[in-house]
Recover the amino acids of this structure.
């Protein structure tokens, strides 16, 4: 690991000052991703600003029934919060579907938002990767790409976004609160991550000197009926091949509220706006669920290794919506 | 920090992991370096009773904390009930992953008692085999001693319930 200077500020103002005008500085949370990437030489910060001493580790009520989750709340703590489990079960389930108990105990909410891809070429210094070395090429395009994305990809990068939590946050219309020496701003979750385009090394709208301070979940009564369903190569402790975060409200056979987001298939956590548009106001049933899933996946850009994901995603979307609609088909 | 009850004072570079500090500086070699990337669980230790992967933890982040490794589980010559159960149920073969399995299992039972959910049950219920396998999925065993590990943990959970 490349040597670095270490600072541990006690307050947010000190933390954002520590990175201001320091392009080589990085914030460190639980370390589950950054420490690994530093050891692999993919991340090489000059200064590590440990933010785990900041008072951002509470979950608070928002006026109107939402929740404000501090950026340093550990993933494990969030899974167990009774308010999250009752009002946003999809979020608790998504977190529980990810990583291991040890990693969830370490990982922070803010860190999970900034989690980087597990594309093997991104970690392999002998391989070409535009995300690791901009302009270097992409060996995943013609290589082993079974785990890669099919939505939102570009000719520069087909890496899949790895987070489960982010898929649930995209479905829940979460808002990310960030702070820098310039002040505070709020970024909608669905606009927080960027598609790769020609600059896959830039993954979010966050400026290098901005600190994620909180995630806000707006009130969404229908989300009490929500579900996260994850398909992977082994029963636990594996990244998603496909995952679905969904909330569904049906009255008299018609869809009155729906939220749908996909994981494992997108270059970013993929909010399924097109599928939602088709579903909303229409009949709840197998035919409309299938039509919506197919419309969302119509723009898929597949490679030999990951073409199966289109079929798998369609089936998983339909199964998840069916389960929410009828209560049947528990995974 | 305090390691297995003893106060240890260390000067470490900020890039030294908790695992390396324990093994190379303090001679506490129970926690193992399997993958060194948070994928195997052999380095699992308890920080203030909470299970973590020591390979992904920088030692400086655990300044002043209480660290427990497999060496700290027994009371003198008396094995921890999980250690005794692992022997009884053949919960190991080569033994490399065992220190991590044991620390993980100690914390897992505590999490279950505290009502932590899992991907198997949204409400903490009986510790079924499926439940134990899910909650222990962060600890790999390449010998495949999983059946014995699960039996050992079920045995201890049943003892605790009595």
């Amino acid at each position: 690991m490349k040597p670095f200077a270490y600072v541990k500020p006690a307050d947010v103002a000190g933390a954002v000052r520590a990175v201001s005008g320091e392009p080589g500085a990085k914030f460190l949370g639980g370390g589950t991703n950054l420490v690994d990437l530093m050891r692999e030489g993919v991340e090489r910060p000059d200064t590590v600003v440990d933010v785990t001493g900041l008072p951002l580790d509470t979950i608070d009520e928002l006026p109107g029934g939402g929740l404000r989750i501090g950026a340093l709340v550990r993933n494990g703590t969030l899974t167990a919060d009774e308010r999250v489990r009752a009002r946003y079960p999809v979020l608790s389930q998504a977190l529980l579907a990810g990583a291991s108990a040890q990693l969830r105990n370490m990982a922070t909410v803010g860190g999970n938002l900034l989690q980087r891809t597990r594309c093997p070429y991104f970690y392999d210094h002998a391989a070409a990767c535009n995300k690791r070395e901009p302009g270097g090429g992409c060996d995943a395009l013609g290589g082993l790409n079974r785990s890669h994305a099919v939505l939102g990809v570009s000719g520069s990068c087909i890496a899949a976004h790895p987070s489960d939590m982010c898929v649930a946050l995209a479905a829940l219309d979460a808002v990310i609160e960030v702070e820098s020496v310039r002040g505070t701003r709020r970024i909608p979750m669905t606009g927080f991550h960027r598609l790769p385009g020609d600059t896959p090394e830039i993954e979010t709208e966050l400026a290098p000197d901005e600190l994620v301070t909180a995630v806000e979940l707006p009130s969404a009564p229908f989300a009490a009926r929500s579900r996260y369903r994850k398909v992977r190569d082994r029963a636990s402790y594996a990244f998603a091949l496909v995952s679905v975060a969904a909330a569904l409200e049906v009255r008299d056979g018609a869809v009155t509220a729906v939220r749908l987001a996909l994981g494992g298939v997108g270059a970013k956590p993929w909010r399924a706006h097109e599928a939602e548009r088709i579903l909303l106001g229409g009949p709840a049933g197998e035919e409309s669920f299938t039509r919506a899933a197919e419309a969302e996946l119509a723009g898929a850009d597949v490679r030999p290794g990951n073409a199966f994901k289109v079929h798998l995603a369609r089936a998983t979307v339909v199964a998840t919506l069916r389960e929410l609609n009828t209560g049947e088909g528990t995974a | 920090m305090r390691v297995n009850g003893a106060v240890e004072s260390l000067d470490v570079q900020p890039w030294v992991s908790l695992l390396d500090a324990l093994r190379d500086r303090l001679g506490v070699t129970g926690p193992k370096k399997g993958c060194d990337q948070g994928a195997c669980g052999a380095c699992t230790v308890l920080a203030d009773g909470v299970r973590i992967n020591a390979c992904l933890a920088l030692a400086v982040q655990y300044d002043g904390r209480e660290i427990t490794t497999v060496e700290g589980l027994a009371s003198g010559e008396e094995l921890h009930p999980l250690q005794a159960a692992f022997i009884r149920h053949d919960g190991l073969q080569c033994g490399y992953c065992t220190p991590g399995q044991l620390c993980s299992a100690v914390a897992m039972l505590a999490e279950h008692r505290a009502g932590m959910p899992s991907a198997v049950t949204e409400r903490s219920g009986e510790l079924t085999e499926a439940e134990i396998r899910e909650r222990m999925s962060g600890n790999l065993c390449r010998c495949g001693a999983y059946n014995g590990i699960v039996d050992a943990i079920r045995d201890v959970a049943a003892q605790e319930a009595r």
User: Anything to note?
Assistant: The domain at 81-161 of chain B is CATH 1.10.150.120 (DNA polymerase; domain 1). Chain B has two domains: 2-72, 81-161. The interface with chain A takes residues 13-15, 17, 36-38, 41, 44, 50-53, 56-58, 60-61, 104, 107-108, 111, 115-119, 122, 133-135, 137-139 of chain B (CB under 8 Å).
